[in-house]
Amino acid sequence: MSLAPFAFDHAVTDWVVSIRAEPWNSLWQLITVLGDSLTLTLVVIAVFVLAWLGDRIDLAVLIALGGASGYLVMFLLKQIFGRGRPPIADRLIDVDSLSFPSGHAMMSAAIYGLTAVICYQLYPWVRENPLSLLIPPGLAVVIGLSRVYLGVHWSSDVIAGWIAGVIWLAVCLVAHRQIEHWVQART
Question: Residue by residue, what is the 3-state secondary structure of 163-177?
Answer without folding.
Answer: HHHHHHHHHHHHHHH
